[in-house]
Amino acid sequence: MATTHRTKMLIIGSGPAGYSAAIYAARAMLEPIVVQGLQPGGQLTITTDVENYPGFRDVVQGPWLMEEMKAQAEHVGTRMMWDTIVSVDLDNGPPYTAIGDSGDEYVGDTLVICTGAQAKWLGAPGEMELGGKGVSACATCDGFFYRGKKVAVIGGGNTAVEEALYLTNHSDDVTLIHRRDELRAEKILQDRLLNHPKITALWNKTVTSFEAGEDGSLHHLALEDTQTGEKSTLEVDGAFVAIGHAPATELFKGKLSMDESGYLDVEPGTPKTALPGVFAAGDVTDHVYRQAVTAAGMGCMAALDGERFLATMAAAPAEREVEAAE
After folding, report:
1. Catalytic residue (one of 142, 237, 283, 305)
2. In the chain, what is the straight-line distance between the N-terminal and C-terminal CA atoms, in Å?
3. Residue 141 a catalytic site member
4. Is 300 a catalytic residue?
């Protein structure tokens, strides 16, 4: 039987942004509900070593970090729901209503959207199997582990060029692999890449498979020329797939403003959307930084702004009563 769950703050999504929003909201006595979605913990649950999250001297595991955030949020009073939101009603709020795959209804005086984004993958053999063993979609996250090693970046847009340039901080041998004969990135980025002594570009090439060595980690890439069909290989220690990210915003199409790539629009410097009491935090609105620490920070901001919004709403009737009495 379907149940209705009511809260002062409904949080959809459970990565660093969602858990951080929950921690702050619970400490503010808002009794938040987090609907965790299909992948509780977000992208960090498929990340192995995390070495750049503040507060940990040694490398920590992504899944462990998310479990700790979840436990902290529960400890201070958050209700975690094992459900996936399938529809939302943003036309008649606040309060706002969401329906879960379970059939349950969730009603929140404020709504914090932390549904995140997913890296786009090539779909080539070996890509998923070698994730964390030489294949990654985040140079900022994992480039440090390839110091002094040979790496490749796959893609031709801004993301790929930025990843390749970043990797030159760790590697003297960076190869950019692109399926066309020219880049789609901004001209200034193209110039930096093409003139960089540590970067080599391979044009008109696609990666047909990621191949492991005897130790089970990535050994080489199998390539095919898009013009001639010629096959070749490239030995690398690390390969970074950089063909973009897809924000999880399907639920909100036609309901909230978003950019051409589907990222939710917010007021600059804040997590505020155009709707009162609706906030967006983390990768669902951030296509620039995409880090756990920035997502967590935005989750904190969303909870604080949500708390202020509720305080303003609560004060409004009292102010109207005073005005009427006068």
Report:
1. 142
2. 50
3. yes
4. no
